[in-house]
Amino acid sequence: MIRSLSLLGLGLAAALSAQVKITSHGPSQVAVEIDGKPFTTLFTGPETTKPYLHPLRSASGVIVTRMYPMEKKQGDSTDHIHQRGLWFTHGDVNGLDFWANDPTQQGPKKGRVQLKKLGELKSGKKTGSISATFDWVDADGKLLLTEDRTMTFHADPKLRIVDFDVTFTGVEKSHFGDTKEGFFAIRLAEELIGKRNGKMVNAAGKAGEKEVWGKASPWVDYSGQVEGQPLGIAIFDHPSNPKHPTYWHSRDYGLFAANAFGEHDFFNDKSRDGGMTLAPGQKWRFRYRVIIHPGLTADAGLQAAYNIFSKSK
Q1: Side by side, which strands form the sheet with 199-202?
Q2: What ranges do the domains of the chain cover?
Q3: What's the CATH architecture for 20-310?
Q4: Is pLDDT at 240 greater than 90 in this prediction?
């Protein structure tokens, strides 16, 4: 009994000293703390039509994603109710919309990404992770494909880094159609958007929506001033991803998305078809890294950071 209590005490001490703490709050929320400060929460409950992280914060505690529609904040825009924090879906899978799939939205038939199983939750001194399996289903609940996702959160005094490692496995033949409405996406805080003081810059140094939207690039950064602090958020596309380097559906109003599929929109050429078909039993793996950093793009050393990420297995 004494030995058991000693082991329990050691376990509690390790958990308390962990720099990345992952905590489940019931069946529908998982909270992430880094160095004792809240970073984000994963929402997966039955009231959601797709999983999302909300909000995302910088190491200094500044929120870099829009609060609407999850919370009310004065000055927030109220467009695109489906753009919630950070999410990962697509606007055309077998003709179903998994992107703009809020129940209040009109349009084509909608799909749903629902939690099948919450996997291992790991806290640690340098990293912590959340693993989960999701089912992509049609309006009648028919399963099209499964998504196995691991999100790894890194401890750092100045940065917030999240790695996404996602494997899709086909159940039915699932065609990811050519549409700009996708794929790996963040809705930015109002102060950060291009219509305010924000600026998007890609790996080639091209800046602004006209130079970034629809162009292929291994990474894009969106930076500006939030609460008086210069900071930015970058998305990295791993070289092993299908159709790397990805195209970017990134807008001045605050949508920030990597999308490898939307070629006929991005090239304004209806003869192009950037779609891909996931066959039953086939697997696709996608990997992305998100970095929230202090300072503007030129000060963040993003190419060097991308080079390190690109070599990861």
Answers
A1: 112-122, 127-137, 143-154, 160-170, 283-294, 229-237, 219-226, 199-202
A2: 20-310
A3: Distorted Sandwich (2.70)
A4: yes
